[in-house]
Amino acid sequence: MRGGLPVPRRERPWLLLILALGAALRLYGLDWDGGQWLHPDERQVYFVTLGLGWPHSLAEALSPASPLNPHFFAYGSLPFYLLRLVAAGVGLLWPGFQPVDHLHLVGRSLATLFDLGTVSLTWRLARRFEIGRGVVAAALVSVAVLPVQLAHFYTVDPLLTFFVLLALNLAADVAQGAGWGRLAALGMALGLALATKISALPLLLVVFALGKTGDQKQGAGSALQFLKANLHLPVALALAGLFFFLVQPYALIDWPTFVDHTLRESQIAWGTLEAPYTLQYTGTWPFLDSMWQMALWGLGLPLGLVAWAGLAAALVRWLRHGSQNDALLLAWAGPYFLLVGLLHTRPLRYMLPLLPVLCILAVHLLEGKRLNGKRKTLLVIGHGALVIFSLFYALAFVGMYAAPHPWITASEWIYRHVPAGSSLAVEDWDTALPLPLEVDGQLRRIEEYRVQTLPLYDEPDDATKWQVLADRLSSSDYLLIASRRLYGSIGRVPDRYPVTARYYERLFAGELGFELVGEFTRGPTWLNPPLPPLPGAAPALLRPDESFVVYDHPRTLIFRNTGHLPAVELLRRLGVRVFEAEHGRGAPRCSAGVCDPRCRATASSCPTCAFRHLHCTAGAALFFCFESPVG
Predict the structure, then answer these.
(1) What per-residue confidence (pLDDT) applies to 378?
(2) Which helix (H) or strand (E) holds 423?
(3) What is the pLDDT of residue 179?
């Protein structure tokens, strides 16, 4: 089968409707954060893009110091260059365009366009594999919540998913007899996928799946026959490498930085290099956690369960019959799922490149063999139910964008109710509130307040750390918790953070003198259910991945320090016993209820353990008297 794949006339209106619906879901609430750039990965993309410039000479362009070098390789360079190029074009057409003010609108519009392209390619791939209802697969991708959410961020995932689907379509064309032009396009698509994110490497296995097909058709009686049958293998791989280095040349020119950043990201992903935001995955199950998060939150039920069943059915078909279509899909989906499922760090967005394939296989599972009569009617009802349930989920999700972001509403509340000059305690590794805003006609900023950062992730979780924290909490007027990031992850490792875990339990129980005066969310409560130790916490199976909630619909809490407890009383309520040594902080001291015999603290400096310490020192003195010759 050569050439393009025309859209049957009866499917055209359905496909147009699906694309229009997908565009509406993705464009609604595009400015969901009021231009504050509240997604950290998206913000990093914008910062890198704004830092790009044009070199003054070819020699400068070919050096690591080139202004075109992003100096950042956690992602591929294609998203940066593409955004910079499109933003420059928009600036020519829109004289009032200001990159700092409007770059996010350009980026998110680009993400939407690529995502709609993925919807079209999903239809094409399903039709190429002779799945009768390709429009159903396209509709499922169009209304699935995960791609709808990620199209509201200009991160690399929508672009990567598009190039993955483009490569799978071209590979299917090549497998069904397309010529060298499609093979060259396949190499280009592979290179662009790698230049978007290096985690697309498993996509290269699709080429080897084509090689296996060619070998079965041509035979491998000799080395010459094998080379003739598989000549497209080295050609496609060489073109992939060529396009990768053309689009991301500084992976070669500045290779030490490229290797360093790639290895660092790999270490974080595998858990050999820990970052605070990876604590949330401690104790989660490989594969099962990703599958359930995708089924419940990324796709929604019942589609999520049908999709994974479809993947399992495809594997069984391939093992039994060696289906070429299943081989191509599994050549990508299988290794990529194995890779992501084994990672320690598994944010839900890592599953996006699998989502279109899962939707195709879900439709194929229900379709089975050609049906007639009542069974065909049941099939239509089943497909319709999947689409309708997914659409209702998507509408409930995007409906939250009608309300302002919780960090914006919380910031407005702070500016209106907290006097300037008050002391605010904010958590490290989370967004510091309040955000810069115009309130009642005045530009307000966080600098109006005395801000104290609480380094709650610091280790060891001992008395030294908590002396600092207790002093800051005691002297603060308000405590701001921007999201569940810290208490949701620290609670998973109570053995490493025993005092901090106890702190959150007693804070939320109202035992530390802080009163909850503001709680800010948006959307249905079930989209971001409370986590322990908050009251009414959701069961473990119903808790979404942190990356699904903390960027566009976090739960923000504001506490007022009504008790103004002294630091020593806060420490006592947290069960922390600290002695300041008479000879300075560096001297040995008792901590966590364990008496150090070398401690020289006085009763006045540590009243919470004075009695026990008195027994330590008195006992030691008595022992010395009985053992000394004078005694």
Answers:
(1) 84
(2) strand 423-427
(3) 83
How is residue 284 annotated by DSSP? P
Taking residue 2's Cβ as centre, other Cβ atoms within 10 Å add up to 10
Cβ neighbours around 256 below 10 Å, total: 8
Query: Residue type for 398, please?
Result: V
**347 class by beta-carbon count within 10 Å (0-12 exposed, 13-18 middle, 19+ buried):** buried
3-class DSSP string for 153-213: CCCHHHHHHHHHHHHHHHHHHHHCCCCHHHHHHHHHHHHHHHHHCHHHHHHHHHHHHHHHH
Joined together, the tokens standing for residue 96 give 């009032």
Quick one: tokens of 155?
């991160």
Instruction: Summarize pLDDT for 136-190 with one digit per residue, the tens.
Output: 999 999 999 999 999 999 999 999 999 999 999 999 999 888 888 999 999 999 9
CA dihedral 50, 110, 24, 396 (to 10 degrees): -60
Class of residue 373 by CB neighbours under 10 A (exposed 0-12, middle 13-18, buried 19+) = exposed
Question: Cβ distance 41 to 155 under 8 Å?
Answer: yes
Q: Is the peptide bond before 13 cis (omega within 30 degrees of 0)?
A: no
Nearest to 247 by CA among 188, 287, 202: 188
Cα end-to-end span (Å), the chain: 105
The residue type of 127 is R
CB-based contact 423:477 (threshold 8 Å): yes
Going by their DSSP bridges, the two strands 442-444 and 437-439 should be labelled as antiparallel
What is the rounded distance in angstroms from the CA atom of residue 479 to the CA atom of residue 482? 10
pTM over 0.85: yes
3-state SS class at 519: strand
3-state secondary structure at position 306 = helix
Helix (H) / strand (E) element for 480: namely: strand 478-481
b/e code 558-577 from CB counts within 10 Å (16+ = b): bbbbeeebebbbbbbbbebb
Q: Which of 95-104, 398-407, 560-569 has the lowest mean pLDDT?
A: 95-104
Model confidence over 297-343: pLDDT tens digits?
A: 999 999 999 999 999 999 999 999 888 889 999 999 999 999 999 99
CA 63 to chain centre: 33
Taking alpha carbons only, the member of 174, 513, 205, 193 closest to residue 329 is 205
Residue from 307, 589, 319 nearest 464 by CA? 589
Residue 466: CB atoms within 10 A of its CB come to 25
Q: Answer whether 36's CB lies under 8 Å from 405's CB.
A: yes
Contacts of 92 (CB under 8 A, 6+ apart): none
Q: How far is CA 35 from CA 23, 30, 41, 314, 544, in A?
A: 20, 10, 15, 43, 25
Does residue 423 contact residue 476 with C-beta atoms inside 8 Å? yes
